[in-house]
Specification:
alpha+beta, two-stranded antiparallel ribbon, 2 helices, Helix Hairpins, two-stranded antiparallel sheet
């Protein structure tokens, strides 16, 4: 029995396949940028919640405050924070379910979410950087191929000297 030896396959990369891959990468970059932006906003909100609850630690007796009705603080509504508030913190535990916990448990939960969000953000940012690097490399390769074809076209168009 003789073994059939196959010649190594040479793949030719053409301009069209590079252009298709560039379009795919551009779409992926947009998706990853959206995810990075969303995770950044979520991280900011979690850090704000943690900062707020830690700032409330000084409240030991009933205190009147103004609470923002929206994220831009367009309108402030008067409210009272009770002296025993630290045992009545309500926190979102996921899928729109809430639990009443004490302040220390809420802080631990927020810290855990912050760590998870930071890790996700780091991973998505690394993935985004990798895709952007591939996109830039392909774009440079495409540009080099384009200039090479222009040079070849110029060489083939040059008139011959001393025709006979």
């Amino acid at each position: 029995m003789s073994k059939k030896v196959e010649a190594p396959r040479v793949e030719r990369i053409d301009l069209q396949s590079i252009a298709i891959r560039l379009n795919q990468l551009r779409d992926l970059i947009a998706i990853l940028q959206d995810q990075v932006n969303t995770l950044t906003q979520e991280l900011t909100e979690l850090q704000l919640a943690l900062s707020t609850i830690k700032g409330l630690e000084e409240v030991v007796e009933e205190t009147e405050v103004l609470v923002a009705a929206d994220r831009l603080a367009t309108i402030l509504v008067p409210a009272k924070i009770l002296g025993n508030w630290s045992n009545k913190v309500v926190i979102n535990i996921g899928r729109n379910y809430y639990a009443r916990v004490d302040k220390d448990t809420a802080i631990k939960m927020l810290n855990k979410r912050i760590n998870i969000t930071q890790n996700l953000l780091r991973l998505r940012s690394q993935e985004l950087n990798s895709v952007v690097n591939e996109y830039n490399s392909l774009q440079q390769a495409l540009q080099a191929m384009y200039y090479q074809q222009i040079q070849q076209a110029r060489v083939s168009e040059k008139p011959r000297v001393g025709g006979g």
